[in-house]
Amino acid sequence: MPSAKRFARIDQLIASLGYGSRRDVEGFIRQGRVQVAGISKFSSDVRIDPALISFDGEPLDHPNGILVLLNKPVGYVCSHNEEEGQTVYELLPERWRKREPKVVTVGRLDKDTSGLLLLTDQHDLVHRLTSPKHHVDKIYEADLDRPLSPEAIDIFKAGTLVLKGETKPCLPAHLEIISERKARITLQEGRYHQVRRMFSAIGNHVVVLQRVQFGHFDLAGVAEGQYKHLSIDSFTTQK
Ligand code: URA
Predict the structure, then answer these.
(1) Could you tell me if the CB of 109 is within 6 A of ligand 1?
(2) Domain 137-214 adopts which CATH fold?
(3) What is the largest CA-CA distance in the chain?
(4) Looking at domain 8-59, which of 3.90.650.10, 3.30.1330.60, 3.10.290.10, 3.40.50.720 is its CATH number?
(5) Whose CA is nearest to atom 7 of ligand 1?
(6) Distance 109 CA to ligand 1 centre (A)
(7) Residue nearest to atom 4 of ligand 1 (CA)
(8) Which residues is 140 bridged to in the sheet?
C-alpha cells in the first residue's frame, strides 16, 4: 500500500479534476457528496488513494489522468479560446475544461481538417508524441484538386522539400498514391499546415484532409464527433 503522503489532499485532488473550487469541495464534503470507502468522517486535508473516493456515489472522473482519441469533425478549432470558433473541447465533458493540469491537444489539426486527434492532461506525453525525435507516424489521407504524378513520391521521400517561408527541409515523408487525386501521406513531424503546404510546394492543392492514424491508433469504432479513452500506458510503454 503506497504511503498516504504520496496522495494529494482530497480537496486539492477533487478540485483539480474539475468538480469545483477547493471551497466548493469543502462544501461537497460537508454535504456528504464525497465518500471514502471505509471512512465515515474525514476532513478536507486528508490524503487518500483516489480509487477509494467517490463523488455522488460515482467513482472519481479519471483521477490518474486522461488520454482520449477524438474523431474531430471539420469546423472545430484546436484552441481553448472560444472566440476562435467552436472548439474541440466542446466535444468532451464540460468538467474537463476545469481540470488542472489542463486537457490539451497532442499537436493540432486545422479547423478544416478532420480525423484522429489525441487529447491529454499528461503534458510530458504531448512532447513525446509530437517531437520528430520519437518517430511517431501520423498518417493523413488527402483529396487533391489535380492529378498526382508518381514523382511526388520521390520528392517527399528525399527529405529536401523546403516549405514556403522556411529554410529547414521537411523530414522524409512516405507518400502512397491511392488514385489519381487521392493520396496517403505519413509524417513524423507536425509543422503548421504541413500536409497542405507540402502539396502546395509541388503545385497541387489539398481539398479534403483527414488524419487517419496516429502511432498505432486509428479511427476504427469512433464515429465523427465521438471520442474513446486510451490507456495512458499505451504510449508510455513504447519507445
Ligand atoms: N497538415 C495540415 O495541413 N493540416 C493539419 O491539420 C495537419 C497536418
Answers:
(1) yes
(2) Alpha-Beta Plaits (3.30.70)
(3) 72
(4) 3.10.290.10
(5) 109
(6) 6
(7) 193
(8) 185, 211
User: Quick one: which of 68, 71, 118 has its CA closest to 220?
Assistant: 71
Active-site residue, 110 included? yes
Q: Strand 206-214 relative to strand 227-229: parallel, antiparallel, unpaired?
A: unpaired
Q: Is the pTM of this model over 0.90?
A: yes
Classify each residue of 185-218 as buried b or exposed e, where b means 16 or more C-beta atoms within 10 Å of its C-beta. bebbbbeeebbbbbbebeebebeebbbbbbbebe
Give the atom of ligand 1 at the shortest distance from the alpha carbon of 206.
3
Instruction: Express each pLDDT in 135-159 by its tens digit.
Output: 999 999 999 999 999 999 999 999 9
Give which of 153, 154, 201 is closest to 178, Cα–Cα: 153
- Report which protein residue has its CA nearest ligand 1's atom 2: 193
